[in-house]
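Appendix B. Extra example for self-study. Work through it before the problem class; the solution is given directly after the inputs so you can check yourself.
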Amino acid sequence: MKRRITFIQGPAAPFDPHQAILSSNSFAVRNLDAAAEDRITITTDQDKLPLELRKVFDQSQELHIRWATEQPFDALAPFASRVSPGLHVHYTPRISNQSSDALCDLLRTMFGAEEGNGVDCMIPKDSFTTPPPLSAQFAASTELQYYTRLPTLQHLVAFIRNIICHDHECDAMAGSLHTADSVDIDYDRASRTLTASVFWSTPPVGGWEEDIKKPASTVDKVEVGILGAEPNVTPDEIKMGGLLGVVGEDKKLKPTMFSFPSRHHPLAESAKYSISFSQPTGLHPEMSISIPHSALDRPPAPLDATCALHTYLTLPSSVFLDQYQVSTTDPLFLKEHNLVSLRAFSGETDLEAPDWAVELWGSTWLFELATPSTTENGDPASNWTSTIPLHLRYLKPSQSGYRSAHVPWPVVFWACVSDDQSKMGLNPFDRTNLGYDGLFGPRTLFYQLHPASEQLVEELSVPVLELEDGQGLFQSRNIEIGTSIVIVLGFLWILTKLIRVVWATGFEANEVRGPDHEKKE
Amino acid sequence: MAPYRIFTIPRVFVGAILLRVVFLVYGGWQDANSAVKYTDIDYMVFTDASRYVAKGEPPYARDTYRYTPLLAWMLLPTAWDGPKPWSTLAFAFGKVLFAAADVVAGWLVLQLLRRVYRLSTAKALRYVAAVWLWNPMVANISTRGSAEGLLGVLVAALLWATLTRKAILAGAILGLAVHFKIYPFIYGASIIWWWDAQRDGAPPAGQPDLFTRAMEFVTHSRVRVTLSALATFVALNGIMYLQYGMPFLHHTFFHHLTRIDHRHNFSPYSTLLYLTSAGQTGYHFEALAFLPQLLLSVVALPLVLAKKNLATTMLAQTFAFVTFNKVCTSQYFLWYLILLPFYLPSSSLMGRPKLGILAAILWVVGQALWLWQGFNLEFLGLSSFVPGLFLASLFFFAVNIWILGIIIQDGGLNGDPIAMARKVHWED
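Solution. Structure tokens for the complete assembly:
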């Protein structure tokens, strides 16, 4: 088992050498103001794993779980990448097209199975979607994809405490997940490794207070580091400087400075976007993505790269896009919505099915957004807005007449593509399998805009059939009885009319006296 | 100097064509200048399907293409990918075809009204123009690219072939119409019952025993219509099945039998269908919805009315079929519109203007109430399923039932206008 704990301090955060002390058998930090990543790597054929996990890994080629909180957080270098809030699962079964129910069983116990706020899949074949074929050119994409809203990790904490932990230290570590901003779990059959990374953008109140002991076994290793971003020399690289050490091996922390290429780069704090819906939303809500004009400058990518603004939507099955409407090349439509084009989509695209008839978890959509031409550069404080027309599926009846559809904020980023098709250099903090990265070439650089809100999930009110229970007039029984009575009465009314006709004139043609008639006689 | 008359054949038809040309040109302008398109979304489906066909793929490669491949084949010119202004014109080919079908349908109705119903040309033109040729709704639907107008010409042609005693042709049109849109099969029942030996000039039957009557039922014309209809229907489906296999059967026919239809529409069943498809169990009244619908439109109405007045029977059948259907949208109203010019001139709705106006007002109020609730739901996001849409659809159903009752009374108790016309003609 390997563990790596990295504290990342912003340029303004204070640091005193006494705040981080490495001794022969432990590492201690005291009220340290920093973001932190805790990464644990397990070799699956050496370390013992609980049965539930082993069963799943035996059937998996690759499994990548990404979770992000619904609250906004600073994604600073080198942890600049973002995904929409919620639980994302990217999965390739060991034998293509064969997936058992073990993965869904595990996901349900790990993350909870509450309706609307938890895992609802039964078998991947039915619920998981297939990312667009475009991504096949990029090695780092999986065969199947799943998403669900997941506001908290309380089930994961309980799962770890019950299944994995044997001591208080482990329980405490599991508890720290409650305040995490993002969690990654990766299993890769090729390297037989399981990696779990947890990221906190801010320290607990009063700063980090950690005592990290030297590992009990000599095979295990614990690395620690306190780093800060330095001004980078080349635009596609990130440069970090600070202190590094191995607990139990090094006598003290060693100063260090290193740089590495990075896929994801943060933009300036002012580069924000916000999501809203024009009211009332009705059954066809329109999502607006607003970005201040000042945040629309080309990112500081290498000059030979071509940069374009994109958004990647992760939509639960209750909300959908009409692929024929949004894949249009009609310039008037695209101009009205400030879109350039739909680049890729996957998942449930049925235009008619109600939500209860949809088995797939939902759909994903990658759009290239238009940016203002240089001539229409307006007031830098004003907003540039792109809009995306959504539609709501019918949801089940409820007592109030309304149900909620939760739409996670999409991610918005610049993707800068260069002609260079070689692989990206090694990055100790690299993060892939985010859904959208697989839709671009391997050397694409992503510059992330920051979501500006206190809550990164929009709640849409969906009108549904209002069902009164008990004594109400419009309970489901009465609706059926009412419909039946009206239709039967209507039917009988028509029958009596017909009977009166038969009574008066029979079934044959009505007699019309005239020469025609006489001739026949 | 003769008084200026609007209702002359050239004026009515030039007007009808001009109206459609204006709609087509305006539609082209709106499509080119507004993000809100004039062209119907269904037209995009048809033309996408044609494009697949042009590439040698099945039309069903396009999602929601739920029609006969004939339609995609007919619109093949729209898939032509030539230089700019010409390809835009080629794209409009289908709309021009649908609009032309409208005008031809109007022509057929006019011919029948003049020659078979013996209405004066001016009177016949007034009804055809008011109901069909100059009706902006009809012109709008076809120029937006909805294929419903094709049904209009097929039904008009079916009635024309029948009333002019062209049995093989009538059967072929019936087979084609059913292949196109299923519902015209109801006309088969009334046409066959109507076409007894007397229609072909045999002397009126006396009161023979049941066996003789059963034997007499099998007439040459009836056999011809039936075989021709079956042969056309089977041949068309056979060709399409050989060409496209199961997807053809699934999308053209089975889909319409298995769809859930849970979305709000004018049908009195829509609230109940939403409930039951969402898993609220009751006694599944909706499972029997086909019973009143088919009993009336296929059995009772043809049996009682067809020999008395064929066109009115077909109108009543369509009205009953649409009113009792599990799903009903405004395009369905076009189905009975084409038959109105035959019924209205001798109807009590025209004979007693107060009754006619009341029927029109109630029908419009029923629509308006429903549309108001639908707007609240669709655009304001208000939960108007109950009582709003539920009661509105039941009220609309009741209005339709009342009007259907009037149509039945008129068709059943009045003399057949065709026979009356012949009598008047003979007396002249």
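Self-check: The mean pLDDT of chain B is 90. If your reasoning did not lead you there, revisit section 3.
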